User: Fold this.
Amino acid sequence: MNETDSKIACILDIGQMLLSNGADVNRVEDTTMRLSSAFDFRDCQVHAINSSIILTLTAPDETIITRARRITRIDTDLDKVDALNDLSRKICAGMNDMKSISVEMDRIRRAAPYSPFMMYFAYAVAAGFFTLFFGGTWMDMLCSVPIALLLRFVKVELSHFNDNKMVDNIILSAILTFCALVGQHLFPLLHSDLVIIGDIMLLIPGLAFCNSIHDMVMGDTISGVLSMFDAVLRALSIAIGYVAVWAVMGRLL
Assistant:
């Protein structure tokens, strides 16, 4: 791979990593254009949506080059987004040694996410306090916490077999609804609706929804609509899981 191809691959790798870890499309396009200028490319045109990045630019030898990159999975890791932003600023400030850049990108790519303990703790705290926030009692909060821990465990296990977030949300929503209804049946003082609301907040695609609004405000209408549609489908999948279990359990309990 020659130097030009290495630089283009670097630009696309950074753009892909940003988009795959929760960055909005406007940030991805802006970063890609800045990196292209820093690497002495001209007439950079980039088009990014949730599932792909298309880059066209003019190399220093006047060759017009077009590359595309497919995005197959989007998670949320804002620590990596922050680290990639720092690396991009260093490149734009004059860091042009491709070996050093490659080492830094490998470090960011291999960076460990939050520890399992921290993720379980975050799920428990979020679910418990959302339950209280929406009017639940302390007993409701104590019920929502173990359900949140179960959701985290199931979500991790599902990630080994399935990459479809809609299917994941249907399963997780069904599990939390079942647990809340059974809990209310065993302990009549529980408010299953408030327990469900507190735990279901863990599944709401808030970042995707906010990014879609931001993209549309910034003029990226296509990517904004796609992100909005993705968020709506994921919210609908949560509702499907809830309704399916409630329709059955409501008759049995």
